[in-house]
Write a structure and sequence with these properties.
Chain lengths: 197, 448
């Protein structure tokens, strides 16, 4: 069975995280746990930009979630309240390695008040859920989808996130199912192969 | 084309930039590779096809501008986007002048990056489709059907190549069946007007009023039967070429109208008042002695001089016997393909007969002779008796009416099928009743 570990970092809101647990469980048919992984975040902060380097953060998470330490179906999703960047781009909402086992998502730019609008907790939660599903989708080997309604459609600004749904389109859902099946088969093969000590 | 068919090559000396951008585009489903310097990029260009390159302007060794120049020299179809820092915008502008699609400044707005790449790739796809269509048009409009290695035909082809790219009026002269229309198409196909139509008007096949309406079109109600407005050939040839075949056969009034439209490129439709402009090139053809017609006063001298600017004389087939074998083989292959027959060549006797014949109907007659032989032959080789030539079957000099040919052909098919009407009708692709009518009409009888 798929397993998702949510890692709240940098004081991420427990209420928000609680709000996305059940939908993530349904989207990936996975057990979803909130885990604490305490490690220093200062080294990822680029003071000149006032943003955190998401690629470096992702690499650090990979150390925690290496192939040797977790089952192949497990994915870790870090949720952060601060702004993320990758060096060549001005900002990112999140980052994941396609087919890797870690992902990170930030809700810094998802809050309506960031754009001079009144605070809206449910809208923020809906946006965070979509981006969390999107990044985890990458971690489960999905690439961007051309369907504008699909959660895997690329979004580089919040209005685009609002336009798409939180669900996978038929093609992406099918690709996810296929990926699950092949991962399970690999896992079962691993179990059957005697280990050389 | 799917995204995985589109190749993006990222060239930057900074590992973090290569990795970040590589990951960004892989998430979109593109085929992505990276190169740490210009030399590595050039190597990757030799081994794989790339649609788009993102090139950092500042790299040790060969910089982005020099790499861009090298890429433009070898493959103009690759779209190059330059990555630069604010401080080097001037250099980026220089890159644009060198042929870069655009430039982006670091750090890049992700939304801007996605849109720029999508726009660049869409533009490249359009350019590729455009080129494919142009190639297809070139293929269709090329003079591929003109066959001939004889000195006479080589001279013709040289003249075609010389005059084609110009806008000069061309007069093609030659006997009937020498391929005047093919030459006209070759001239059009080699001209900048090739992406517009070549419109043929067979001036010899129409009455005075019909030709006028055919050339200039007509308004609704211009004459009895003119229920709709119709564009004429001159109007349809706008941007392209107007090919006036058998120009020597037009009457005095049409000669005058034609002279006016050739001089002014303006005309009015029959029954209309609106002045219409059309930009066309004129190519005309004739097998008549136009100089004699001018002397006789049946062809306007001013129109003659308008049309007779550059003349190409097509030699009769009997004047270039060296081409007969090549042409015969060309038609044999063409009809074997069309009729799905496994006929590979001519017997030595058949080839001798072809070369000895005078071919008064020129290449068209040769083509018809090979087609007929292809219909009647049952083996892999065309024999002399399959050819409708003197001494080898029926003479082409006698019984040239369509009915005569039809009669002979039906008789031949009936004979080959033992006078079985159903089988013969199937071979002729007509119904049995029609075949019975034709047998009765031509008085065909089975000879025991």
């Amino acid at each position: 069975m798929n397993a998702i570990h949510i890692l709240p970092l940098g004081g991420a809101s427990p209420g928000l995280i609680d709000g996305i647990r059940a939908p993530l469980r349904d989207a990936f048919r996975a057990s979803v746990d909130v885990r604490s992984t305490p490690f220093a975040l200062d080294r990822f902060l680029d003071e000149s930009r006032g943003q955190y380097n998401s690629t470096s953060l992702l690499l650090r998470l990979k150390e925690e979630y290496s192939d040797r330490t977790v089952a192949p179906q497990t994915r870790a999703l870090a949720v952060v309240p601060f702004d993320l960047f990758i060096p060549i781009l001005t900002y990112v909402f999140g980052e994941a390695e396609v087919g890797g086992n870690v992902a990170v998502v930030s809700y810094y730019r998802l809050a309506p008040e960031r754009y001079g609008l009144p605070s809206d907790e449910s809208l923020l939660r809906a946006r965070l859920l979509k981006e969390a599903v999107h990044e985890l989708g990458h971690a489960y080997a999905l690439i961007h989808c051309s369907s504008q309604k699909c959660v895997m459609h690329a979004s580089s600004y919040v209005e685009e996130i609002d336009l798409k749904g939180a669900e996978f389109c038929t093609a992406c859902a099918s690709a996810l199912k296929h990926h699950d099946a092949s991962t399970k088969s690999q896992a079962s093969n691993l179990k059957q192969t005697p280990r050389h000590q | 084309m799917t995204k995985s068919d589109i190749g993006i090559l990222i060239v930057d000396d900074e590992l973090i930039v290569r990795e970040s951008l590589g990951k960004w585009f892989r998430e979109d489903g593109y085929r992505v590779d990276t190169a740490e310097n210009a030399a590595a990029a050039l190597r990757k260009l030799q081994t794989s096809r790339w649609n788009l390159m993102l090139v950092d302007i500042k790299m040790p060794g060969m910089d982005g501008i020099e790499l861009l120049q090298r890429v433009r020299e070898t493959d103009k179809s690759v779209t190059v986007i330059i990555i630069t820092a604010f401080a080097t915008v001037d250099t980026a502008v220089k890159a644009l002048k060198e042929g870069a699609y655009d430039y982006i400044t670091k750090p890049i707005d992700p939304d801007y990056l996605d849109h720029m790449v999508e726009k660049a790739l869409a533009q490249q796809l359009l350019a590729m489709e455009n080129q494919k269509l142009k190639d297809a048009v070139c293929e269709l409009s090329s003079g591929g059907e003109i066959i001939g290695e004889s000195p006479e035909m080589r001279k013709v082809m040289e003249l075609v190549q010389t005059v084609a790219p110009t806008d000069t009026t061309v007069m093609i002269r030659g006997e009937s069946g020498t391929g005047k229309e093919l030459v006209a198409r070759a001239i059009h196909g080699g001209s900048p007007r090739k992406y517009f139509p070549i419109v043929t008007v067979n001036c010899g096949a129409m009455t005075e009023t019909l030709l006028e309406s055919e050339l200039f079109g007509h308004e609704r109600g211009a004459f009895t039967g003119a229920q709709y407005r119709r564009k004429g050939k001159v109007e349809l040839a706008d941007g392209g070429t107007l090919f006036l075949d058998e120009i020597g056969n037009i009457d005095a009034k049409t000669q005058m109208d034609l002279l006016r439209v050739i001089e002014t490129r303006q005309f009015t439709r029959v029954g209309g008042t609106e002045v219409i402009h059309s930009d066309f090139r004129v190519i005309c053809a004739t097998n008549k002695d136009l100089e004699q017609a001018v002397r006789d006063g049946t062809f306007r001298e001013d129109l003659y001089y308008r049309l007779n600017v550059f003349t190409i004389e097509l030699p009769p087939l009997r004047g270039r016997r060296g081409d007969i074998a090549r042409l015969a083989h060309h038609f044999l292959e063409k009809f074997a393909r069309q009729m799905n027959k496994n006929v590979r060549g001519f017997s030595p006797e058949a080839m001798l007969a072809l070369k000895a014949h005078d071919w008064p109907g020129n290449v068209r007659e040769l083509e018809n002779a090979v087609e007929r032989a292809m219909v009647v032959t049952q083996g892999e080789v065309i024999e002399q008796e399959h050819l409708p030539l003197q001494g080898g079957g029926h003479s082409v000099n006698e019984g040239k009416r369509l009915e005569d040919i039809e009669q002979r052909h039906i008789e031949q098919v009936l004979r080959e099928n033992g006078w079985n009407v159903s089988r013969s009708a199937a071979v002729l692709d007509i119904d049995r009743v029609t075949l019975y009518h034709k047998i009765e009409k031509y008085g065909l009888k089975r000879v025991q």
